[in-house]
TrEMBL record:
Organism: Kangiella koreensis (strain DSM 16069 / JCM 12317 / KCTC 12182 / SW-125)
UniProt GO molecular function: antioxidant activity; oxidoreductase activity
UniProt name for this protein: Alkyl hydroperoxide reductase/ Thiol specific antioxidant/ Mal allergen
Stored Pfam families: AhpC-TSA (PF00578)
Gene3D superfamilies (UniProt xref): Glutaredoxin (3.40.30.10)
Amino acid sequence: MLEVVTCPINLLTLSAFKESLLKQLLFSSISILFLAGCASIQAPSSSDTQPVTTKPKYETYVQVGQLMPLKTVTTIDGKSIDLTNPEKRKLVILFATWCSDSQRAMKALHESDILNQEDLQIVAIARENTVEEIKKFRQERNITIDLVADVDRSIYKQFASAGIPRFILVDKNNRIVNEVLAEGENQIELIQW
């Protein structure tokens, strides 16, 4: 004869057990997906015949000796600037108001004697900033050079894929003399003709 044994189960304990089991299952699933993703990345072995190439951190699209791609720009004050002027060298600065390196470069520029060079035209182009943001930046820092808004990066992407501030040095013949990514300290020292 069969005996039926009953075991009283507390419904609250069963609910907590189910919740704990679901949490463990979810954690295990996420862990498996994460580890599977990491395991799918293979390092090249020495037996591979293809050379490994790496993409540069920042691609630059202009070269020394090339003609300056910009001919004219319009400042945040509506003034048109001719960048083909044969009477002046040009210093074009690509920056962003939110970038600490850009802020440092603009401060150093305004503390230097570069602004006093009669044969030099300086234009700073702010990428991804509105006219209002640039005007506020100019006022807060007493910027005296011409500033241009490049809200959609249409100007910037003619020069590089990423990285600011950048100094583009252009001679009187409108040829690029130097192009420098000016991150870090002592940025003004990078401006060499």
